[in-house]
Amino acid sequence: MDFTYTEDQLLFQDSVREFLVNEVTCEKIRELWDTDTGRSDELWGQLAELGLTGMTVPEDFGGLGMNEVDFVLLAQECGYVALPNNLTETVLVAVPLLASLSNDTFKSEWLPKIAEGSAKVAVGLEQNLLVEDAHVADVLIMQKGSALYAVDPAKATIEFNASVDLSRRLYSVVFNEAEADLLVEGSEADSLIAKSVNRGALASAAQAIGLTKRMIDISVQYTSERNQFGKPIGSFQAVKHRMANVAVQLEYAKAPVAFAAYAIANDLSTVDKNVSHAKSVACEASLTGAKNSIQVHGAMGYTFEVDLHIFMKKAWALNNTWGDQAFHKARVAEAIFADSDKIGAGCTFL
Amino acid sequence: MDIQYTEKQKAFREEIRSWLAENVPKEPLKTYDTEEGFQQHREWEAKMNEGRWGMVTWPTELGGRDADLIEWLIFEEEYFRAKAPNRVNQNGIFLLGPTLMEFGTDEQKADILPKMADGTEVWAQGWSEPNAGSDMAAIRSKAELSECGEYYIINGQKTWSTRAVWADQCFGMFRTDPDSQRHKGLTFILVPLDLEGITVRPIPQLDGLPGFAEIFFDNVKVPINRRLGGEGEGWKVAMATAGFERGLMLRSPARFQETARRLVKLYEENQAGADRDPSIRDAVIKAYMAAESYCLTTYETACRLIKGGKIGAESSTNKIFWSELDQSMHETAMAILSARAELEPFAPEAKGVGTWLDGFLFAQSGPIYAGTNEIQRNIIAERLLGMPR
Fold first, then answer.
1. Which residue from A80, A84, B77, B245 has the fewest beta carbons nearer than 10 Å?
2. Are residues A247 and B389, on separate chains, in Cβ contact within 8 Å?
3. Considering all CA atoms of chain A, what is the largest pairwise distance in Å, rounded to the nearest integer?
4. Is B5's Cβ below 8 Å from some Cβ in A?
5. Which residues of B touch A205 (CB under 8 A)?
6. pLDDT at B308
7. A-B contacts (CB, under 8 Å)
8. What is the DSSP secondary structure assignment for residue A179, as one 8-state letter?
């Protein structure tokens, strides 16, 4: 029984955190809001150079051949800075989906380019209303029922849908099957889609962990500096307890997220339940984080000027992406109401 | 990360499972808050000790099994799954025992631990005083060294002393330096409860039974060899007793996972009624997830500690998490049981109420004892998050 990350995994997390905190500042995020695409090719190139875009690309295709457990801590760091692109979905959803295809030509065409950062891919599954980053994708992987297609973005109709989170670039995508390449269909496609939903939920859950941590950090700093009644407002118990409540929820969401990553990487039979548990509690923690953080900021929290909203808005959005609370709680319910003798003490890892 | 049990851990689980299957009393024991029940639980501890299951984390030479934290968690999972009796001597075995091994003299260990292990001596704790509750450093009970230097003379009062009504021994902190303030000048002393000058006055708890008591000390002479650690070092010794691993010992995830499992069953048995309020189903699902979160987090921490890692936030967050989970699970059970919820299990119309009412009453104490959750939240905000004092 070893429920710990390796030294290497933790070191990688440290170096990625350092890079992201320095490069992806709130000023940078605000600058990108005013650009056409909202995306930075320079940043994407840097992420590729760090090996991030190719982390889950198999070594045969020029990647690092790592798995969900290797990446989940990094996805948390992406959340911590509210990274304005779809790196986590690229690594956790798009690449594993591509790598699972039996079509070697297609894989050879795209995987090496994704690893080196010269191509971007966006995935549109029916689980989600819209497709993130479809506007900058070189290829779209689209679901239609029990089939997955490779779609040339030039041959699809793409329409922007504005999100409250100005960093999220969401698109409706309409395409004609006749002009697309069928990648896989039937039960094989269903299984790939189901796995992709779990991986997408993991990506959201991991980012929610980072977002929550960031909202705590911002709020602790603000309440330590802001004085009223002659002292920092962070010294008042009512303010302290709000932040303590977020810290408790966050503390108990981390291990479920780690276990969800492990369950996906090791194809555990309980994976749906494990992922839904993680997604539900991690997003719940981030919602509490947002609610309590804006409250302790007072009126400043309600402004566009203070950076808090960058993180709150992403937290609100991710809660309903890759399955909302209703979807994930229903999957947990399905698992536990099926046979209550198979839950409880001693059953967590069986 | 390799999250599966080793062959050794699986064998350990099988061993305790079969022992429990053979030995757990078929009829539940009476509550240890009655004289008869207390005696039954004392006998159960003796039986556990015979099987070397009394305290698996203790060293082999003291009747334990040198179990690590993972084996401890496995033991607890099987113990709660088997519905084995509550541990009457947990103040001794889980809290004082490990502290004694760390701070005690060889003589103290040889004298006290075997009798603790077999239930001959059941321990009560003596932390709180009428004016020292959440503010434990406000302790005023005095222990004065006699002129001959052979014993302490104790005067004062302890309160909310769990198990003290029928316990044999009590441990606690006393002020040995009358001029001292706060955390300084306190000494950890082990007091036999049959000494002259001691009066134990039972306090009925919410359920009407005397689960705790007041202890009055009137010139009680306690031999100096009953001091644990140095004079004036009581706070340091007490903090070790209150540390995380002890917390883990006291309230491991298994207890709450079993409550969550019973709650799922209770909901299923009463679903038609329960679904009239959709929030009940949501609460059941959330309870299951929270109990699993507690389990996963505890395994993660235990693995990290075994590998030589340090305790992080867990020591302050876990008390809040499990106590509020326990409270909300029992609230949900009460909602499901509806009009039957208030009925004592022996009432003629109390079909299917199980032990939920008892658990509900007890759950009210969780956010209060061992440092109120308000104090825990201050600790998290100040020490973990670094908010201003």
1. B245
2. no
3. 70
4. yes
5. none
6. 87
7. 172
8. G
- B35 is known as an active-site residue: no
Within an 8 Å CB–CB cutoff, is residue A216 touching chain B? yes
Whether residue B270 lies within 8 A of chain A, CB to CB, comes out as no
B297–A252 CB contact, under 8 Å: yes
* pLDDT value at B244 more than 60: no
Report the pLDDT value the prediction gives residue A338, as an integer from 0 to 100: 82
Give CATH 1.20.140.10 domain extents, chain B.
251-384
With a CB-CB cutoff of 8 Å, which residues 247-266 of chain B face chain A? Answer: 253-255, 257-258, 260-261, 264-265
Domain B123-234 class in CATH = mainly beta
Q: Kindly indicate whether the ipTM for this predicted assembly is greater than 0.95, answering yes or no.
A: yes
The helix/strand/coil state of A142 is strand
Instruction: Please tell me the pTM assigned to this model.
Output: 0.96
B251-384: what fold? Butyryl-CoA Dehydrogenase, subunit A; domain 3 (1.20.140)
How far apart CA B320 and CA A251 sit, in angstroms, is 11
**Residue B313 pLDDT grade (very low, low, confident, very high; cuts 50, 70, 90):** low
Question: Is the pLDDT confidence value at B249 over 80?
Answer: no
Q: What is the mean pLDDT of chain A?
A: 97
Strands (E), chain A: 121-124, 131-132, 139-143, 147-151, 157-162, 169-174, 181-185, 227-228, 231-232
User: Are the C-beta atoms of residues B318 and B247 closer than 8 Å to each other?
Assistant: yes
Percent of the residues in chain A that have a pLDDT greater than 90, as a whole number: 98
CATH code for the domain defined by A188-342:
1.20.140.10
